[in-house]
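Structure first, sequence second, as always.
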């Protein structure tokens, strides 16, 4: 979830990076992306303690697992990858597959 605003200069910098680079990179992964304007979703932004823009919330199973604030493409990319690895490991554990960390 990206919280942004049309008047925010950092949001204006990050929006095309998010839409044209980050989101397409994870097109084949079990990830959904959305952009929410804080002026339209004030209550939601307040309840999730969005205090700076842009703020990216990585949510899994209804919980915020990671918060990335500002224009940091690499941190956002790494955070998404980490959450996907966690998701894949949990899936393997549920299927009883051996962990890739075992010798």
């Amino acid at each position: 979830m990206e919280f942004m605003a049309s008047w925010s200069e950092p949001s204006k910098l990050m929006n095309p990076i998010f839409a044209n680079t980050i989101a397409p990179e994870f097109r084949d992964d079990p990830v959904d992306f959305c952009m929410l304007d804080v002026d339209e979703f004030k209550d939601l932004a307040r309840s999730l303690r969005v205090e700076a823009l842009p703020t990216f919330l990585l949510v899994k199973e209804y919980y915020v697992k990671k918060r990335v604030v500002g224009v940091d493409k690499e941190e956002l990319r790494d955070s998404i990858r980490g959450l996907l690895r966690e998701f894949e490991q949990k899936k393997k554990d549920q299927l009883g597959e051996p962990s890739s960390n075992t010798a």
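Margin note: The chain has a mean pLDDT of 92.
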